[in-house]
Amino acid sequence: MSRSNRSRRVGAALAACLCSAGAIAANAARLQAASGEQIVQQSMFNASTNRLIVKLRPAASGLAQPMSSERVNTLMTRAGQALRVLRQTGRDAYVLRLDGSLPNADAKALARKLAEDPSVEYAQPDFRMHALATIPNDPLFATQWYLSDTNVGLNLPAAWDLTTGSGVVVAVLDTGIVQHADIDSARILSGYDFISPDTTTGGTTVVAGDGDGRDPSATDPGDRVTAFDQTTLNSIFGNGSCPIEDSSWHGTQVASVIAAATDNAQDIAGINWAARILPMRVLGRCGGFTSDIMEAMRWAAGLSVSGVPDNPAPNHAQVLNLSLGVSSEPCTNFEQSVFDEILSAGTVKAIVTAAGNDGGAASQSSPGSCNGAVNVAGILISGAKASASNFGAGVTVAAPYGSSVSDGVGSSGAILSLGNDGTTSFIASPGGDIVLRVGGTSFSAPLVSGVISLMLSVNPNLTASQVYDTLRQSARAFPSSSNCRNLGCGSGTVDAAAAILMARDNPPAIRSFPDSTDNDSGGGGGCTVTRGASDGSLLLLLLFACGYAWRRLGAR
Asked: CB of 173 within 8 A of CB of 322?
């Protein structure tokens, strides 16, 4: 389609469905139901120790008794095993090394035995302590490697020790949403259907799939395209533009990555245990129009849209998730103006976009190339960039991509999402609940949206630029073997625990995003610094802001 057509349709690629879900998922039943296999959560460490802490009673003079070799021999006889003094510790106690490691229960029994010696004031195991890790009881959490992995995953157990989230509103601009038993309906807000009527072609019913234009229901009726639908759609959009395909229920999948019910002993774990989802229906059969998507973004942010009742204030979104895009079309003036308007209004703290699945330059796809977007590339479980993920200038950070047939990543590397198996011969309608193995930057983006919602749970006063900078500065370096070190997948892989700690305790200084009129061809621009900073801080901030002037080439 010509670039001059500024109301181009935004990909029913959904950033290439932005998923491999249909091929990988094999719409069967829930993953754990097929074999009846029970997943047992293993302990992260063995509760054992090879040390005791022993304090001797003071001598008659009131002075502390030393742990003499004679005293050690006496204690060894009582213990029935060899003991070795490692060192004296605080409060005149001694650390003794056992002959071997004992379970904590056995070590406590041994300590009680030593405490029976009249010369011993107390004895106790020198317990091994560990970083606490909140592990939910969802049966499939053990296979959600991308949540717990500390190499390229989100490191969420450590993050959940800091916060499991709050009622931050995350708008999911997608195909809408359907009910699922593992999504708490009380956390789904009343969104809106922004698919506008097309009175000139009569294509309203076939595109929207729900028989009308814009309405206050964000329920996903399905985006299945039959041969009959294809004939009508091709007459509207041109031959070859709308493939025959089953419904994706893509919006439900994306929302579940962020906010599936967690620690409820069912299916999968979501990232934020309390976040609220504002479903925005902007994609129907054959995708959706840029104009509809931009207006839906504004409405979700609390801005007025002509002909549509305002979104009530309690439902204003703090995070917008756009797992959609169009290839070979950089951000336009219209799109950038909407991004600028929304971010300057202050309610929305992040617009998260999928970098796209074309294996090319992220700067050449929109809306991810718009200035101010948190644009997310996809990384595999191996640490390498997913071959289909876009990369280069304009990528903010990377997050797990999931399954990728072309990269040889099987189901063990998949991202799990909640979906629906509903299809019929002529129309799509919701069916039964299923769990899907999926992949694509469509799912990399909501992983980051979920992390941002946790950041806002500990510091709701963060600005959009602070969220952006916190993600980049706290990101984990790519593994030494990763091709992302050369290709450009953003500043690193998102580390939820590090991002939350920085957001809570040490957020970056407030600054502005690079000016939307600047681009990379001039060496970077749009450098704005905080007023009132000292001369040294001013220079550092100036250099820092210039270093992040990530505008894409030729966007205008």
From this structure: yes
Q: In the annotation, is 247 catalytic?
A: no
Q: 324-360 pLDDT, tens per residue?
A: 999 889 999 999 999 999 999 999 999 999 999 999 9
Give the domains, in start order, of the chain with CATH numbers.
9-38+136-507 (3.40.50.200), 49-125 (3.30.70.260), 509-556 (no CATH)
- Enter the DSSP assignment of 155: -
The yes-or-no answer on residue 174 being catalytic is yes
Question: What letter would DSSP give residue 514?
Answer: P
Residue 445 backbone dihedrals phi, psi, to 5 degrees: -60, -50
At residue 346, φ and ψ (nearest 5 deg) are 95, -20
Rounded to 5, what percent of the chain is helix, strand, coil?
Answer: 30, 20, 50
Exposed/middle/buried for residue 510 (C-beta within 10 Å: 0-12, 13-18, 19+)? middle
pTM over 0.85: no
Question: Choosing from 126, 184, 248, 250, which is the catalytic residue?
Answer: 250
The one catalytic residue in 138, 174, 182, 469 is: 174
List CB contacts of 174: < 8 A, sequence separation 6 or more. Answer: 14, 250, 251, 254, 255, 279, 280, 281, 282, 283, 321, 323, 324
Give phi and psi for 72, each to the nearest 5: -60, -45
- Span 35-93, pLDDT tens digits: 222 222 233 345 789 999 999 999 888 788 889 999 999 999 999 999 999 999 877 89
Residue 417 to residue 259: CA distance in whole angstroms: 10
Please confirm, yes or no, whether 220 is among the known catalytic residues: no
From 363, 365, 442, 491, the catalytic residue? 442
Q: What DSSP element (H or E) covers 131?
A: none
d(CA 452, CA 159): 12
Cβ atoms within 10 A of the Cβ of 221, count?
23
The sign of the torsion formed by the CA atoms of 134, 139, 142, 145 equals negative
